[in-house]
Structure formats: structure tokens, C-alpha cells
Amino acid sequence: MIIGIDIGGTKIAVAGFMLDAGLGRVRVTEAHTFPTPAREGGPAIVRAVVDAVRVVCGGGVVDAVGVGTAGVVGPDGAITSATDAISGWAGFRLQDELAHALGAPVTVINDVHAAAVAESEQGAGRGADGMLMVAVGTGIGGAVVLPDGLRRGITGTAGSVGHMEVALPPRLAERRCPCGGLGHVEAVASGPGLERTYFEESGVALPLREVHAAALRGDVRAERVILDGARYLGRALAGANAVLDVEVIVVGGGVAEVGERYLAEVGAAYRAAAMPGPSRARVVPAQRGIEATLTGAALVARIV
Ligand SMILES: [Zn+2]
Prior knowledge:
alpha/beta
């Protein structure tokens, strides 16, 4: 059995996978999900994951383990940088620690990179000649899957569309991205970025789903905030695909699920800003939802 694991800031999911002749690795057990011991940090997470793997595999042999995790993951499977959602996560040698504790080969990659592998092999990017994925949620993550596989990058940050600079009105151009940069699309088009813009314009602090509900009720300001975010993202994707020239751009994450109008606006802004050629790339919604990271992690697990 191959184990797929999704480690997020608030919850961890673990599931068993087996080989299917048509689809590659497919999930064969229920996902076992539990809250992340985020305050205790890496060692507690390793202990909790080991317990969960025992539950999932039911005493059977674990051939390989794949992990998609929050944070930037270096080529050796260590966390090189992360938000403080998980205590001491940056610097934690997750791949080595888990392999030691489980006695099985472990492959650790970034969670959006893992989700992109699932979309590429079993979802919205299946059969495409190159795929760029963007996941719009608490931040804006991304990933590049070329015909020969996922491009992780020398430092594990390949596909970081959220840190592309886009032209912004002066009131937004000064807003600092979580990475420290200015003018980055993540600062203005992520969930928290949209909530902040709505607050700055209206004086009302609302979670994104309520901003979206207000937009549906005819609140013009709420609608403009969300659709402007979609347009900034579309332009950043146009810049990225001038370099990559991939066939499909997959848009996922919680923000992208606000509705079809959002995705249509991302696509329209993309086509308006892209070069002739890459402008023909299809901009499509992700298909694998919250299971994508779990599945992609199992797909990249290497049996040695
Ligand atoms: Zn940034």
C-alpha cells in the first residue's frame, strides 16, 4: 500500500492508495482526518502521522509514503520556509524524520505542487501538453507540471504565481505581500487580500464568503473587489504563461470556488493580457477539490 498525506495548518489527512491499471494510484481507504497539533510543531506532527498511518494500513505493509505539506519544501524534503501557522515548521526536516519514524521511504513536497500532480494525472490537466496550476486561498500558491513531470525548482518554489508583480492602483501597490515584496498579486488577490480591500473601501470587516454573498445581493463594491482580484490574477497568469507556454491553466483553491463569474473574469483578464499564442491556453477550474493534495502526494511517493 502507498500512503498519501496532506499536512495543512489546521488539519492533516491520511489515506491508503493502491495501483489501478487505468488511473495510476487510486484511493482505497477512507481519508483519516485529524486536527494538526500546530502548537506542538514538527515532532508532535510526526507522532500523530505515524499513529494515523497505522490506523489506515491496518497492519499491512507500507511500500511508500508521499506527503504534500504547507510551506516551501527543499529538494531534500525539509521545510525551508513557512508561515507561523505551525510552530517551528520552517527548518523542520520532515522527510528524514518521517522516514525514520515509519521505516518506509517518504517523499515530501509542497501541498500545491502535490495538488497539481493530481490535477495533471487525474483531473483538469489530464492529457494536456503542460499545465500551470494556481491555488487561491489564504495565500496564492502555484505549480508547473510539464510533460515530463512536476517542476519543483532548485529551491522548491517553482510556480509561485502569487509573487509575480502586477500593475496596481497606488492604494494597493504599497501593500506588503507576506513574503515582504511589494506589488505581488498574493497581497491583493488572496482571500485575506480581498477581505482587506473590502474593509479598506467599506469600513466593514467581513469574511470572504460574506463579501461574496453581498456581491450576489447587488453590493456593487463587494462585486468590484472580488472581480478586480480575479483580473489581477488573470494578468499575473498571462505573465507566467508568456514564459511557460503551457496548454492548460488550472485555477483552484477556496477563493476560486466563489462562483463561475470569478473564473470567467480570471480567464477574460488572462486572454486580454496574454501574448498571441499563449492567449489560447484554456483557463479551467480544478476538478479534484480538497482531495487533490492527498492524491498527488500518493502519486509522487517513490517506492525504493
Ligand atoms: Zn510575495
